[in-house]
Amino acid sequence: MAAEVRASLSQRPLPSLPCKYFYDERGSALFDEITRLPEYYQTRTEETILEKIAGEVIDAVRPRELCELGSGTGRKIRLFLDAMASRGLLSRCVLLDISEEVLASSAERLAADYPGLSVRAVAGDFLEDLPALGPGGSRLALFLAGTVGNIHPDEVPAFLGSVARQLEPGDGFLVGLDLVKDPARLHAAYNDAAGVTAEFNRNVLRVVNDRLGADFDPEAFEHVAFYDAEAAWIEMRLRALRPLRVKVPAAGLDLAFRAGDEIRTEISCKYTRASFEALCAGTGLVLEGWYTDPDSLFASALLRRRTGGAEGPGRP
Ligand SMILES: C[S@@+](CC[C@H](N)C(=O)[O-])C[C@H]1O[C@@H](n2cnc3c(N)ncnc32)[C@H](O)[C@@H]1O
């Protein structure tokens, strides 16, 4: 973490922080609060789609193992576990998340609520640690909530290639995608009236303080979120409200911020069917199903590992 934070905060002209560091226990609780906000249509919409398609997806893939990348509280996975149980397929489930606290509690709850289900929790980074999932075969992997949007589009093909290598031909990968839409709707979703997203955004500074001994004053930064139509992504930043000096001892940094200086904390890419399908080309995964809501706010894309090998580009 120290090396990553050192590299990202040293970027010029725009320093950044990796968005995976939002999610300590407090950050995960704040994200959960975001999912219940009136402006945040994503979770409600995806859940409506998943309720409709879970049975169909299970019938298509016939998995014995369900796996969720960035599983968080593990609420949505239950729709798929229920569909597997009603078909006599319930067997194994693997949760992978960077946030160890949330991972442990959601794995415990799933094991308690689904007797006979073997639950494995893997603490790790979905960009680096997918080999920890072990060999695939009869596997359905889920990547929900539009989290794929936090990966820079240039890096998505390599990510999809690394997922394909953990799957066998016929295995499935269901990806949740937030769709391109009216920028005003997007703006509202990331600038909620209650200020929960702002608190979530500032939480990354608290995590850097806790883990690397930094002395960021989170209240000295304001939340900024805007839609970049050319890139088709929402960008979240933290803007210094006054001149500040910040030390990050474990990363060997002594930083000077002027009022107005910004740190990029997240991108959240918005997709169309065509823009996402283009990123799948050559990764070993093929788009087989595209499910959306009546207002085309959100989509669930069912990818299948094609026969003949995952030939996607590897991560450097
Ligand atoms: C937007 S939340 C989605 C949670 C849940 N899947 C849902 O649909 O509500 C993203 C989740 O991914 C995890 N996460 C973020 N970056 C990660 C990374 N690089 N590797 C593993 N997990 C990550 C976070 O801890 C969080 O639980």
Task: Write up this protein.
The chain is of the alpha/beta class. The protein has a domain at 41-125 and 138-182 and 274-304: 3-Layer(aba) Sandwich (Rossmann fold), CATH 3.40.50. It is built from 9 helices and 12 strands. Strand 6 and strand 7 form a beta hairpin. Helix 3 packs parallel to helix 4. The chain is globular and about 60 Å long. Bound molecules: S-adenosylmethionine. Residues 20, 23, 28, 31, 70-72, 76, 97-99, 102, 125-127, 144-145, 147 line the site of S-adenosylmethionine.
Mean pLDDT: 96
**Strand line-up in the sheet with most strands:** 3-2-1-4-5-12-11
Uncertain ranges: 312-316
CATH architecture of one domain: 3-Layer(aba) Sandwich
SS content category: alpha/beta
- Count of helical segments? 9
Helix content: 25-40%
CATH fold-level label of one domain: Rossmann fold
Outline:
globular
Q: Order of helices and strands, N to C?
A: HHHEHEHEEHEHHEEEEEHEE
Radius of gyration: 20 Å
Assigned CATH superfamily of one domain: Vaccinia Virus protein VP39
List the SSEs and their pairings.
Layout: H1 2-9, H2 25-35, H3 41-61, E1 65-69, H4 77-86, E2 92-97, H5 100-113, E3 118-123, E4 139-143, H6 156-164, E5 172-178, H7 183-190, H8 196-212, E6 221-228, E7 233-240, E8 244-248, E9 253-257, E10 262-269, H9 273-280, E11 285-292, E12 298-305
Parallel strand pairs: 1-2, 1-4, 2-3, 4-5
Antiparallel strand pairs: 5-12, 6-7, 7-10, 8-9, 11-12
The protein binds S-adenosylmethionine.
Compact summary:
With 316 residues, the chain is an alpha/beta fold. Helix content is 34%, strand content 25%.
